[in-house]
Amino acid sequence: MHLLQTKAIRRTDIRRTLIYNTNNKIRSVIPRSNSPRPESLNSSISSNKSNKSNDHEKLRRRITLNSYSEVWKRVRYKMTAVVMFIRLYKHLHLYGANTARIIVPYSEHFDDRHTFRRASKILSPVQDLISSEPTPFLVLHPNGKFKNYWNIIVVIMLFYTAIVTPFFQAFGDSLDQENVFWIETIVNILFFIDFCVNCTSAYYDKSQALITIRKLIFLNYLKSWMIIDFISWFPFDIILGNSGSSSKTLARFARIPKLYRLFRLSRLIKLFNKNFHHEIMDKFQDLLSLKSSALRLLKSCLSIVMCVHIFACFWYYTAKIYEFSPDTWIVRLGYIDQDIGSIYLTCLYWAITTLSTTGYGDIIGYTILEKCLCLTWMACGLYFFSFTISNLNSMLSSFDLKENALCSKLAAIDEFAGEANLKKDLRIKLKNSLKYAAEKRGFSWHDKMNLINELPKNLRFEIAMNMHQGAARNLNFFASKDSSLIALVVPLLDPIFVEKDCLVYKEGDFADEIYFVVRGNIRILKEKTLIIKSIQKGCYFGDVEVFMSCSRRFSAVSARYSEILIMNKNIIYQIKDNHVLVWQEMMKTALEREKSYEKTFIEIKEMEKFQAGRVLTKRNIDRYNKKVHLLLQERMDQLHRPDTLTLPQLIKKVEDLMEILKEKRQEKQKAATCLNCKKNVIMLGRASSWYGR
């Protein structure tokens, strides 16, 4: 028993803890124990009290120092992190991101892929984030694969709405009701899915910013087509059809809301006229290799045929609403006993004759609803002939000059592609580039200069900040620049659209443009496979070769669909003449980027040579850094050697020599003229003296 009590007391002594008071004092907390202490332990405890007080004082000082040291360590770590983030931010916007990324699929040989993969792991082990516009869970991207495939299904449903739904609405009672019911149910389910897709689809606002907030998506959809889409799928016929035979008329009228789907055709037509890169008619045109004039004719014919079909079905539906009373046209004219095909053909005959003329008088409207439908369709025919045919072309030519110019250019491209036997892919790229340029540019460089020079300075700056969807606010180059520079440069920038995996420029091209990334991602490549830098949105590239007056040393490829603003050589000369400090800053940045690009390329090339069969030790890494430094110094000396002339420098020297030769010729001509004058004076003097004699 005595042994057990001793062990229990020892356990409590081991669990003794120290608590730090707010007055920076240490006090010992000893757990209470109900068991009495043996007398043999009391003497030992009293003898150790003095030693424990000294230990407590030392421990208090140690804890105080440790607590302050931990605080200062955290402060130091935070300050270091802030400084590193600031440096990283400046480095990203100056040089780009993702140094030494490797495009492995572009390499054709296994050894090259292995080498590039190893170098990529050594220099940049962090994985690249491919998606630049992430969306929350259950929010669809407007340009995603699912949305593109779903749009094709929506187009099919719209054609179904325009063709099959009016026919079922009018002649559905004469068909197999079970089949009609299941077809309508499937279509209702598809329209319900489309309703859900629209409720969860992100969209771009006026400033081309992607909106992914569910509340804003819902409100935007509510303002546009939400009510009509809701009516298009809501099963009114099923709900009202179960209310008894007395509500057959109501159930028949309940099918009318399905015709509201036809209003979505106007939405589809509006998309055909406004969007250039995501419209379905362009894809249809490219698929069938149709000309622009043929496509416009096809759209007009399809619109007329659909309208004739819809009004023909409505004409029969007017009699159906009146339950085929003796006053309806189908009973008065004796068509009630004919089959569906004959009645539909008669309805088409009425629709075409009423559209093209005012009718022959054989089929006329008698009831109020028939007269209203006849008046409506005759008004459509009047609009079709008087406005569409005679005045539409003249109005479009006077109010939509850009569209007419674009159509003529597209027609010229079709003719040129046929004569030159261009491939379909190249023809599509030409047309897309022309459409984007016509939408974004509109004016030539000289027209822009003349227009901008006539405007006051404050108005020029305001226009510049709002051009190109406010791109100047998101470009880092203009963040700290003067308003006069922004007013001069931004209106003169030319926008282009670059598709995914397309070249912006390639190695060896003539360099006379600088590029600003508005949206997307551009990769700077060397030797077609090695990614030197990745240029993010808001940065610019292509300035190294322009300021060094040499051909392109690297290639630039778009990593995804990108929008770019181009600063051509005219704008660069304007900056050089009017803003010398900005020119010097750009020159300094170009020199730093050149050194960074060359260093990255040398590091990748030398890494595999240096690391083969060696262990990465501090000594080997030092030797590797020295080798890279020496090679970089040799490369920079080679690039900036004064005796090496680039092509622009050689052209300039030839032009200077031509000017010198021209001046010498002029001097010789002047000397010869003076000599001839002197000879003439001498001859005249001699002649006068001879005549005096």
From TrEMBL:
Regions annotated as coiled coil: 647-678
Primary residence: membrane
Membrane topology classification: Multi-pass membrane protein
GO CC aspect terms: membrane
Compartmental location: Membrane
Any one Gene Ontology molecular-function term assigned to this protein's record: voltage-gated potassium channel activity
Chain residue ranges for the region called Disordered: 29-58
Transmembrane feature ranges: 149-168, 180-204, 297-317, 329-351, 363-385
SUPFAM superfamilies (UniProt xref): cAMP-binding domain-like, Voltage-gated potassium channels
Cited InterPro entries: cNMP-bd_dom, cNMP-bd_dom_sf, Ion_trans_dom, K_chnl_volt-dep_EAG/ELK/ERG, RmlC-like_jellyroll
Domain Cyclic nucleotide-binding: 477-593
Biased composition (Low complexity): 40-51
Keywords assigned by UniProt, alphabetized: Coiled coil, Ion channel, Ion transport, Membrane, Transmembrane, Transmembrane helix, Transport
PANTHER family assigned: CHROMOSOME UNDETERMINED SCAFFOLD_10, WHOLE GENOME SHOTGUN SEQUENCE, ION_TRANS DOMAIN-CONTAINING PROTEIN
Name this polypeptide is given: Cyclic nucleotide-binding domain-containing protein
Originating organism: Stentor coeruleus
